[in-house]
Automatic annotation (TrEMBL):
GO MF term list: DNA-binding transcription factor activity; sequence-specific DNA binding
Residues that span the membrane, as ranges: none
Domain HTH myb-type as annotated: residue spans: 15-67, 68-122
InterPro entries linked: EOBI/EOBII-like_plant, Homeodomain-like_sf, Myb_dom, SANT/Myb
Record keyword DNA damage present: no
UniProt protein name: Uncharacterized protein
Stored CDD domains: SANT
Cellular component terms (Gene Ontology): nucleus
SMART domains according to UniProt: SANT
Superkingdom field: Eukaryota
PANTHER family: MYB DOMAIN PROTEIN 62-RELATED, MYB TRANSCRIPTION FACTOR-RELATED-RELATED
Limits of the Myb-like domain: 15-67, 68-118
Location within or outside the cell: Nucleus
DNA sequence: AAAAGGTGCAACCGCGACCTG
DNA sequence: TCAGGTCGCGGTTGCACCTTT
């Protein structure tokens, strides 16, 4: 009895010794120094031998996600965002697999990007981020904008038959190797509506976007969306669509063109 | 100026796969 | 073959910081 009590308290003491929460500069230095001298691997023994009062798991995570020299810090570039969107549409939440295709980026960072930026937009639109409609929205609305902001050239794309490449090829063929504003580039493409500032999205009935005959509830979104003038076309087509209006921004000439990163909110900015 | 609410991200947790003796 | 240890992945949480009221 006493022995088991002693054992329990001993275990608790050991657990109490382990630090949790944010890493201090000293801990970081200790971990870097230890790995520099001894290399990675065997995280549990590393944690013990290094003198860090952390679990092996914690050390591994800190090293791989933050301290490792080849880990990139800072915002994702448009090219990286494009790749994430494309690879996620292929593989879903296989973050580590996606991260393998983005040198210097960690699965954690990509996962956070997806949850904080992409899923936020899905919530905003009241669309399930795993739904087909949202994937289509990304492909037809966000991808062209990312391409405009500096997406990869076709030769550098790792997804040769991807939607984004198809879109880019479309844009390239129409712009004859020079970037042109989307409304021009899209004039002959069936994913865009006749309204130069609008894009037609495939519409699926399970979405929550219908209310009072409109696809978007104006009371809840700042998305402008369904254009009643298109209602006839909408109802007459099997491949139903709905319409978003692009934000009133001069995408080619404004200051954003110089940014290496811009946030998703800008891309998904909708007119009230 | 301060409180409340929202956001982003580092870190933790649980679990399954893999390794090793 | 099997059991215990370790690793890696994906989901979740906690908190600092920012924005709004």
């Amino acid at each position: 009895m006493r022995a088991s009590k002693n054992m329990a308290s001993s275990c608790n003491e050991k657990l109490d010794e382990l630090r949790r929460g944010p890493w201090t500069l000293d801990e970081d230095n200790l971990l870097i120094h230890y790995i520099t001298c001894h290399g990675e691997g065997r995280w549990n023994s590393l944690a013990k031998s290094s003198g860090l009062k952390r679990t092996g798991k914690s050390c591994r995570l800190r090293w791989l996600n933050y301290l490792k020299p080849d880990v990139k810090h800072g915002n994702l570039t448009p090219q990286e965002q494009l790749l994430i969107l494309e690879l996620h549409s292929k593989w879903g939440n296989r973050w580590s697999k996606i991260a393998q295709n983005l040198p210097g980026r960690t699965d954690n960072e990509i996962k956070n990007y997806w949850r904080t930026k992409v899923q936020k937009q899905a919530r905003h639109l009241k669309i399930d981020s795993n739904s087909k409609i949202f994937v289509e929205a990304l492909r037809h609305f966000l991808v062209p904008r990312l391409l405009e902001k500096g997406g990869p050239s076709p030769s550098s794309s790792s997804t040769s038959t991807s939607t984004m490449e198809a879109i880019q090829n479309n844009l390239n063929s129409q712009s004859q190797d020079k970037q042109i504003p989307m409304e021009k580039a899209s004039s002959n493409s069936n994913i865009y509506s006749s309204n130069p500032k609008s894009i037609m999205f495939p519409y699926t009935p399970e979405t929550s976007l219908q209310s009072n005959g409109y696809i978007v509830d104006y009371n809840n979104f700042d998305v402008v969306s369904f254009n009643p003038l298109n209602a006839q076309e909408f109802h007459s087509n099997d491949a139903s669509t709905f319409e978003f209006e692009m934000a009133e921004v001069d995408w080619m000439n404004n200051d954003l063109a110089d940014d290496t990163f811009w946030n998703m909110d800008e891309l998904w900015q909708f007119k009230k």
